[in-house]
Amino acid sequence: MALTIETESRIYRSLRAVSGITAHLVSLGFTIFVAVLARPGSSLFSWHPFLMSLAFSFLMTEALLVFSPESSLLRAFSRKVKVRFHWALQLLALLCALLGLAIISYNKYLNDKAHFVTWHGLTGLLTVLYASMQCIGGVALLYPKLMKNWTLAKLKVYHATSGLVGYLLGCASLMLAMCSLWFTTTVTGLSWYLSVLCPFSPPSYHEPGNAYLYRKRIQP
After folding, report:
1. With 70 as the cut, is the pLDDT of residue 219 above it?
2. For residues 68 and 74, what is the distance between their CA atoms, to the nearest angstrom?
3. C-alpha span between 145 and 152 (Å, rounded)
4. DSSP designation for 90
5. In the chain, what percentage of residues exceed pLDDT 90?
6. Are 44 and 50 in contact (CB under 8 A)?
7. What digits encode the pLDDT tens for the residues 183-205?
8. Which residues contact 171 (CB under 8 A, 6 or more apart)?
9. 120: closest CA among 182, 75, 77?
């Protein structure tokens, strides 16, 4: 028996709610897990995995989830507040990522090691540069009058789409980090496989694009 539009919509919202809760828990849990492993402060290098997981696993995930109608922690607040909170979290994530990049670069310099010669290093550099550009692009949404030849609706679509690409880059960089010598010697067996799944937790953070398209599809 075919599902009615109302039933299909209710199932969709329920799945997104469960997905969102899972994303909250996984992003926080993974960041705590990395912090326990790295013990930030125990060495100069230890700050790199902690800051990068904090930036791309926790802060960026929360910045995207803030717009989810089912799982946002700020559902009761206005969109203006959500936008400001999103901007603050993304800026904080970028600062953590830049600091993490600076630390690993300086650590390699101190140990006379080559820079950006692995897939993780190259992807990480690309991700940080992309996140920097994405934050600059976000200024256009805060002050749309600066972009006179672009409509606000078009800017939102482009920012949401490019933001998703940036998030996926962050996930790829985190996954490649789990193939590094430091991580594979510290985490083994089933724990390693579970860790690899963490950056790809349920994608309820696709709200600006996927949910909008879905709502348009189910409208009578």
Report:
1. no
2. 9
3. 9
4. H
5. 59
6. no
7. 999 999 999 999 998 887 655 44
8. 56, 199, 200
9. 182
- Distance between the two ends of the chain, CA-based, in angstroms? 19
CA dist., res. 57 & res. 52, Å (int): 8
Which of 202 and 175 is assigned the larger pLDDT? 175
pLDDT of residue 3: 61
pLDDT level of residue 148 (50, 70, 90 thresholds): confident
Q: How far is CA 7 from CA 4, 14, 35, 103, in A?
A: 5, 11, 42, 51
pTM for this prediction: 0.86
Q: Which residues of 109-140 are buried (b: 16+ CB within 10 A; e: fewer)?
A: eeeeeeeeeeebbebbbebbebbeebbebbeb
Q: Which of 16, 102, 17, 100 is nearest to 58 (CA)?
A: 100
Find where tokens 């290098």 sit: 45
What is the spatial distance between Cα 143 and Cα 101, in angstroms, rounded to a whole number? Answer: 29
Helix (H) or strand (E) holding 60: helix 60-65
